[in-house]
Design goal:
The complex is a heterodimer.
Chain A (H helix, E strand, L loop, with lengths): L6 E10 L5 E11 L4 E5 L6 H8 L7 E6 L2 E2 L5 H11 E5 L10 H12 L3 H14 L15 H13 L5 E5 L7 H16 L3 E5 L3 H6 L2 E6 L2 E5 L1
Parallel strand pairs in A: 3-8, 3-9, 6-7, 7-8
Antiparallel strand pairs in A: 1-2, 1-4, 4-5, 9-10
Helix pairs in contact in A: 2-3, 3-4, 3-5, 4-5, 5-6
Chain B lengths: L1 H5 L9 H4 L27 H13 L2 H31 L6 H4 L1 E6 L1 E3 L5 E3 L7 H6 L4 E9 L7 E2 L15 E5 L3 H4 L2 E6 L4 H6 L3 E5 H7 L9 E4 L2 E11 L9 E5 H8 L6 E6 L4 H12 L7 E4 L6 H39 L1 H9 L4 H38 L7 H27 L3 H7 L1
Parallel strand pairs in B: 6-11, 8-10
Antiparallel strand pairs in B: 1-12, 1-13, 2-3, 4-6, 4-12, 5-9, 7-10, 8-11, 9-10
Helix pairs in contact in B: 3-14, 4-12, 4-14, 4-15, 12-14, 12-15, 13-16, 14-15
The chains are: A alpha/beta, B alpha+beta.
């Protein structure tokens, strides 16, 4: 037996009650295995946000089943979903979302707060994560003093500090210039090479093309690009 | 280092990359891919974590914090000042009409009807009773009086054996401690009152009440006149008057207690006179018997100025209603201020809220965080306001020469009231914060 898929969507439909009723995702099937590197592209309004919500356990499918790391998520209550989200999924956002009054270390530690990382391991792991993204020398800096690329690295460190199975990146290079984008993507790919499953939602064709698999959402349906 | 990020600590979950298939043999093979792990209690998001996170939220904008607490500070301060002055006034207003009786407390041994129909004292005032009560707050001076039974001895200034002289009733003899004169507000006309040294040594000295001195024909003491009780001589060292509380002392020969104990075998003092600060009557009346006899405070009866007065109640209620209404309004404004600023803070921190949700915080975690922030702001305002109020009462009392009277629960309770205001103010913002859609919040900015 091989290990189960990190993400498995089975006939997932998400509809928003109307009128008129809108089906943001229509009978979607998707499998992401451990170590996969996947990009999701699509025009705005195509269902990318809904997809991100579902994958990130921030929303529930109307119909269908979502297995995260082999666990059926449909029957879990809000508390369990929050715990699962904190433990299995790391998020990286376009706007970084670092807390401005907290140091880099504090920002990374924030992710260990809700995910149940043993207390004694929190700081060593946060420092290791900061080291991993190459920001050793910025540990006690405030985010306001960092460059865009550095901020996104802090966000990546925060995302991986809880040892997630899945890294969900939402337009991670949207606020960065081409050079910095490329550096951040290199970092993502290094993490992917270490076995982390990576799902990147993006507008940027250059970013999307770096992924091993690319999926296009159009009007709520998925199309796997060759 | 790379690996350490991907691998869970040993013993938690077996490393899947290396020996994944082997796991199937394990006892929890079915759970191998780990439904949400049971997180040990110590590693969950605890109250302490919550407080730390909330404190960062509160401390992020100090200037705003000051403005936010201002309303609560004013409201709580005015409540404390109003109630505090009402309590202080309880000691003042009535007393201005009779300041002597308002500053005098009398402690006597309680009496019980004995089997032979006579009253028997059930308690005994210890000789150091003045020192004991002097330590109480509000007590200014205290002195003991004992009646001296001189049997049928007469008190004379010159022992003359004149069978034809008319029988004169001799003045009564009492014994007091050295501080009594001040405690009953007597004045020295000439000479001096005896002191603790005379008392301790049992010196044969005496002080005369003014009328007794007149009766004995003594009007100056610089010639060291003597009086005789029976045949024992006592040097007169002073003449006193005043003593509004015990004007009978004007007709008495006053001896030091120690002398009376030695010469006449006085067993116990009969009265303890205490002079108190204006308004301290109730307090001293409650504490004095305990100070005198911790084991049996019920054995003493205390006569103290009453702080209850219709007049006072009337004046008080007029002042109170106005100030309480003002305080209530200020408090309401304070609560609205907190609600407003917390709401603003929720709106500003939408991104943070979304992030926390994405990192595994539940709606309840978010709601509690903002709730705590609001409560702490309220409590802070309450503490500052309460402190300011107490200071105001104390300083004004000091300037006016009043005794500040404040129930400690008033200070504590009003600080807590600030927290309650914060709690009420936080409900709406906290609910708003917990209902924010994480992805909308995270993609918005």
């Amino acid at each position: 037996m091989t290990r189960p898929a990190v993400v498995e969507l089975v006939d997932v439909t998400r509809s928003f009650p109307g009128p008129p009723e809108v089906q943001a995702l229509k009978s979607v099937n998707l499998r992401v295995d451990a170590g996969d590197y996947l990009s999701i592209v699509g025009p705005s309004g195509s269902g990318k946000s809904t997809m991100l919500n579902l994958l990130g356990l921030l929303d529930r499918p109307s119909v269908g089943e979502y297995y995260l790391d082999g666990v059926s998520t449909g029957a879990l209550d809000e508390q369990q979903r929050a715990a699962l989200r904190g433990g299995k999924i790391g998020f990286v956002f376009q706007a970084f979302h670092l807390l401005p009054h907290r140091s880099v270390l504090d920002n990374v530690l924030l992710a260990t707060l809700y995910s149940g990382v043993p207390r004694s391991e929190r700081e060593p792991r946060a420092r290791a994560a900061i080291d991993r993204v190459g920001l050793n020398h910025r540990v006690d800096f405030l985010p306001g003093t960092l460059s865009g690329g550095e901020r996104q690295r802090v966000a990546v460190a925060r995302a991986v500090v809880g040892s997630p199975e899945l890294l969900l990146a939402d337009e991670p290079t949207g606020n960065l210039d081409a050079t910095t984008s490329s550096e951040v993507m290199d970092l993502f790919e290094e993490l992917n090479a270490d076995g982390l499953s990576l799902v990147i939602i993006t507008h940027d064709r250059a970013v999307a093309e770096r992924a091993e698999r690319s999926i296009r959402i159009t009007d709520g349906r998925l199309l796997e690009l060759a | 280092m790379r690996l350490s990020l991907r691998r869970r600590p040993a013993g938690d979950v077996v490393d899947r990359a290396v020996d994944g298939p082997a796991e199937l043999d394990g006892p929890d093979a079915g759970q191998a891919w780990g439904a949400a792990r049971e997180i040990p209690r110590a590693d969950r998001f605890s109250l302490q974590d919550l407080l730390v996170e909330a404190s960062f939220g509160i401390g992020a904008k100090p200037s705003r914090l000051i403005m936010t607490t201002l309303g609560t500070v004013l409201g709580i301060a005015s409540l404390v000042v109003t109630v505090g002055f009402a309590q202080t006034a309880a000691g003042q207003i009535a007393n201005q009409f009779d300041s002597v009786s308002a500053t005098q407390v009398l402690v006597e041994p309680a009496t019980q009807r004995g089997s032979n129909g006579a009253d028997v004292a059930t308690g005994r005032l210890p000789w150091d009773a003045p020192e004991r009560v002097a330590r109480l707050a509000g007590v200014e001076r205290a002195g003991l009086i004992a009646d001296v039974d001189v049997k049928d001895l007469t008190v004379t200034s010159v022992p003359v054996n004149d069978p034809s002289a008319p029988a004169v009733s001799s003045p009564t003899v009492v014994a007091t401690s050295a501080d009594l004169l001040a405690a009953v507000r007597g004045d020295v006309v000439t000479g001096r009152y005896f002191d603790a040294g005379h008392d301790a040594r049992g010196d044969r000295v005496a002080v005369l009440g003014e009328r007794a001195a007149e009766a004995l024909g003594i009007n100056r003491v610089d010639s060291q006149p003597s009086i005789f009780i029976g045949e024992t001589p006592y040097t007169v060292i002073g003449i006193v008057d005043g003593m509004e509380r015990r004007s009978d002392l004007l007709d008495s020969v006053i001896l030091p207690l120690g002398t009376a104990r030695t010469d006449f075998g006085v067993k116990a003092a009969s009265e303890l006179h205490v002079q108190i600060a204006v308004g301290a009557g109730e307090l001293v009346a409650r504490q004095a018997p305990i100070a005198i006899s911790p084991n049996a405070p019920e054995n003493f009866t205390v006569t103290s100025p009453s702080s209850k007065s219709d007049l006072r109640d009337n004046i008080q209620s007029d002042i109170n209603v106005v100030f309480l209404i003002l305080g209530g309004i200020a408090l309401l404004a304070g609560g609205l201020g907190i609600a407003n600023v917390t709401m603003l803070s929720v709106m500003e921190r939408i991104g943070e809220i979304g992030l926390r949700r994405a990192l595994g915080a539940t709606k309840r975690d978010i709601a509690r965080q903002f709730m705590i922030e609001s409560v702490v702001i309220g409590l802070l305002g309450g503490l500052i306001g309460s402190a300011l109020g107490v200071f105001a009462v104390v300083i004004v009392s000091l300037v006016q020469g009043w005794t500040p009277i404040l129930d400690p629960w008033l200070a504590i309770g009003s600080a807590l009231l600030g927290a309650v205001v914060g709690l009420a103010a936080g409900v709406l913002p906290a609910r708003r914060a917990s209902n924010i859609e994480p992805i909308t919040a995270l993609r918005g900015s």
